Amino acid sequence: MKLCFADLHVHTALSPCADDEMTPPRIVERALAEGLAMIAVCDHNTTGNTAAVQAAAERATVTTAARAGDVAAAAERANAPEAVERTAASGTPAGDGLAVIAGMEVTSLEECHVVGLFPDAACAAAAGAEVTGLLPAAGEGYTEFFGEQHLLAVDGTRRGAEPAALATATPLDVGAVVALVHRHGGLAVAAHVDRRSFGVVGQLGVFPAEAGFDAVEVSRHVSADSPTLAEYAAFGLPLLRSSDSHTLDTLGSARTALRVAAPTFAELALALCGAEGRSVALA
Amino acid sequence: MTLDDIARELELVELVPPNEVERAAEVTRGYASDLLSDVLAHAPADGVLVTLQVHLNVIAVAGHADLAAVIFAGGRRPDDDVVAKAVEEGLALYGCEADTFEIAGRLYALGVKGSRA
């Protein structure tokens, strides 16, 4: 088992409230500079940019390997683009790169935020299509008040705009959102429970134990040794600490320490269960 | 009643003053809700919103719903970035110590009715 760090809640410029600088290459660059082994891309009610960030992470890994003199490995990858794509899709880069988990932050009927973390880009895309399909179209004036929703390519160029109103709530209650995430093979995390706005406790008054969450996330506003953590630990679920970054400068400002065999989705899932020496801890 | 009249009568704390157009306009409708999707769908244009939510999306929703002003009930106050955004959007913000039920009742007594009344 090895120790590595993850920031499992990062937005891209697809989220209307996120900064335009949150492009796939810049997110990857920043995450690597922060020493993170894993991030999760979680835009509001969409997974539209997750594959692009995964591909950007794969590119960065190839570049890093080439720079390190591992030209043969890079050439091998370059000659086998299908293998590279497969690796990117599974969120598991070869070598010491950045693993990018395909995620989504779903807004429930009660305006609670639920982070879904999916095994691969295909599962995430299926869940994303279902969720985005429940939203109204972004009507006239929407962008002006809520912000742009940039669909981005691997190099950060704009390939379009998401037409749905991502800043609105789905008609699914918290339990239904968790069930949707599970149906697509994902892990459901109660996002930023310490926040009065959009956290499940702030919106519902109590933690919904019956909803079936897999983990509870605290925001960067709660330090890793805060006495208030006891309150959240009492929910009986593993705690994660994530940045919920909408700007580059906060990416990695809150993180979770993973003790895993490798930074992959499968290992993360095992770590949440505390399986065979694996663990998650706040960092 | 204008926003200035309402603010004076109810002793609201003015966080962001109304712009010249809103200052002179009559406010006849109001809405009270903490679910922003509900506000977006049902709040009356040119009305006042009473809410406990103090985050940035309130300003976006109020702008999109074309509200005249937002009153934060229960002593809640928005952060500086939320206030700055309201200034930018020209949206009047007020705070009060009274809870939602109390402030909605006082507004009604002043003649501000619900969206369907």
Which CATH class of chain A applies here?
Alpha Beta
CATH architectural category of chain B: 3-Layer(aba) Sandwich
How far is the first residue's CA from the last residue's CA of chain A?
Answer: 17 Å
Summarize the biggest pleated sheet of chain B.
5 strands, mixed
Strand order of the largest sheet of chain B: 1-5-4-3-2
Integer tally of domains of chain A = 1
The strands making up the biggest β-sheet of chain A line up spatially as: 9-8-7-4-3-2-1-10-11
Indicate the CATH architecture of chain A: Alpha-Beta Barrel
Radius of gyration of chain A: 18 Å
Largest interface: A-B, 14 and 14 residues
Q: List the secondary-structure elements of chain A in sequence, H or E.
A: EHEHHHEEHHEEHEHEHEEHE
| Radius of gyration of chain B, whole Å | 12 Å
Q: Indicate the CATH topology of chain B.
A: Udp-n-acetylmuramoylalanyl-d-glutamate--2,6- Diaminopimelate Ligase, Chain: A, domain 1
Query: Which CATH class of chain B?
Result: Alpha Beta
Question: What is the N-to-C order of secondary-structure elements of chain B (H for helix, E for strand)?
Answer: HEHEHEHEHEH
How helix-rich are the residues of chain B, as a percent range? 40-55%
What structural class do the secondary elements of chain B suggest?
alpha/beta
User: If helices are DSSP runs of H or I spanning 4 or more residues, what is the number of helices of chain A?
Assistant: 10
